[in-house]
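TEACHING EXERCISE
Course module: macromolecular assemblies
Task: Read the component lines below, then compare them to the predicted structure of the full complex.
Student: A.B.
Group: 4
Components provided:
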Amino acid sequence: MAWEPSSLQQALDDVDAFSHVSLAVNFLEDLRHRLEASARDAVTSAALPANAGPLRLPKRVMEDLLACERRALANRHTESQLNRELVIGNLIDDLVSHHVLGGTAPDRALQLATHLVAAKACDDEAAAATAAWLEARSQAEREELDQVVSERLESLLKGWPELRPWNPRLGETVSVVLADGDVVISGRIDVALGGDWCERPVVAVEVKSGAAREEHRTDHLLYGLLLALRDGHAPAAVVTCSGADGKVAADLVDEDALERATRRASRALEIAGALASGKTPDENPGWRCGFCADSHRCPSVKR
Amino acid sequence: MSGATSPDREELSGEATAALLEGLRGLVVALSEGKYKDASDDARLRVGDFNVKQALTCPTYAAQGSEPFQPTPRRMRRAVAAAALRSMTRTPDLDIVTAVRQTLRERSSLDEWVAEGLEQVGSAGRAVVAELAVEDIGARRRSLPWRPAPSDIEQRRHWQHPERALRLATDFHLQDRDPDGTTYHLLSRSPRPTHETAEVAYRATVATAAERRSPARIVVHYPDTGHAPRQVEVTTELLNEGAQVAALAVAVGLIQLGLRREDLDRRPGGQCHRCPVAEACGPGSEWRAGPGRLRGGLPPPP
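Instructor-supplied answer key:
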């Protein structure tokens, strides 16, 4: 079940009011078996040598594999693929964490975000790359960036309740290990809420600094699947909050949602196995071309 | 050997210490040679869990040097999380965010290096520590008992070589003492890391030598995947393996200090991408040129 609440507050109120979704007996075990079979097929196709390490498939790569195979490979092999939108996304993530932890609202969002990124940079390569990108901007570019980040943050956080009663966790890692450790699917939840320890339903909140598209919602259901497999019971919902327009989208994690997420994950595993074995990647041009490290030489690029 | 009784555990302690001394015999000499020979407790070489992990990953890569210790947010997270969790066990209604914020504000419950480090990193750095600590507490709460005695949370054990120039240390997330002995709990982010047994062996050996009594068991928890915890019984074999692992980490440390020259094992893997000697390393070059170059198993685009 999917719905569009007016705010995160509304989404959480709705989730709290729903009765807990119960899954059929052995439903999750069946999903795990299907993923396990897909993972073993992928490993067999890939025929990686023993010391090559596991097929590591973070959620971002799973999305790329399904959206455009060429992009999935290109972005996996480029050290720095930062552009303005990705940097805005990183900054917004840090500012949201700061907000959830009770930090005061900044006068200048970019200034605070720059400090947060700099503090992370000493032991976080991605933050160091973001810091370097910011360093290279002109004063005019920074001012424009400050305005955009401030506007999106304000739009995003409008209607966010005090989250402390929900025991928020930031950047919670969740993964499923398959095929005797040869395949690892993982995700990092922007804000995880609830759980037994605060007697509230588990909700995964995904923050999009830009506009949330329909396909993002489908992608985010992977969090529901990973959480369900980790915890042995499904979370209540996955909520997507968008900074570009302030919209909130919520998806109840029921059997139908878990089934869809499993089908997509199995398909992504199949593609990963084929690519690892040397298959020429398909190209699927679209809006993601703007975020692709190979766009400068891809014959199918959509400009 | 499982279910060791108390006298057995004391016996195992003697074995662990003997194995450590034997494994380290040739190595400690290097630390005591030359100008360095003082009687202070300040060991010249300190080996901890991180050094062990590095040495097991690839000794040659690990021996390329280590940067001077800096109290970064990632390094301080665990201490802050443990202190906040102690507050939460004392005050059950305390929520996770408030507990971390209080810990960062008061800092009285933190080790000196952490308190000083938090001052050094400024308010933005403290905000990052808070974010990381909140995640750390979440992982502990998913796996470990919820209301342990505050004094059982986060345990460090260290063993100093009789020559005093070397100190081995290990950290556990939680201890659980009962008449059967001490159970140490550890969190691991992945259920099948290549060197998990070797790392646990090192921890068991140091804890045994430090306490003069072997632990009842070490339990490894997997908060990210939800796998069933792995219980490792402490046996003579495990303690001997731990002594060998300690010797490897000490050998790496001696090379870092410039006190020893030795060709160590080369174990190609992801670190080859960052290794300063990868070009001149046969297994590393082969790994980078072969399927091992793949990032997460996927090939580069055509």
